[in-house]
Amino acid sequence: MTLEFKVPDMACSVCADKITKAVKTIDPGADINADTKTKQVSIATQADESSVKEAIVSAGYTIA
Per-residue b/e over 12-38, b at no fewer than 16 CB within 10 Å? Predict the structure, then answer.
């Protein structure tokens, strides 16, 4: 399944890397595309949506 999130406080590549690492902790096989210009994160994952959201929030980011 592919999940799409708007992450308004993702400002740079370091932020994108932190989000990627957080999601990979729950699904090492996830394919993550984090676009800092549009603040969009697209995640192809086997994990459920609530777990992915929790991982992103736990990394210190807000989901709009």
Answer: eeebbebbbebbeebbeebebebeeee
* Pair 59, 19: CB distance under 8 Å: yes
User: pTM value?
Assistant: 0.94
Q: Is residue 63 part of a domain?
A: no
The domain that contains 30 carries what CATH number?
A: 3.30.70.100
pLDDT of residue 37: 97
C-alpha neighbours within 13 Å on the C-beta side of residue 4: 2
Average pLDDT value for the chain: 97
